[in-house]
Amino acid sequence: MRPNIIKSSMNYKIFFYKTNSGRELVVSFIMSQNNRIIIKIKNSIRLLQEYGLNLLNTMWVKKIHHKPGVYELRIKSEKIIRIFFIYKKPNYFVLLHGIVKKTNRISKKDLYIALKRAKEFV
Question: N or C terminus of the chain with fewer C-beta within 10 Å?
Answer without folding.
Answer: N
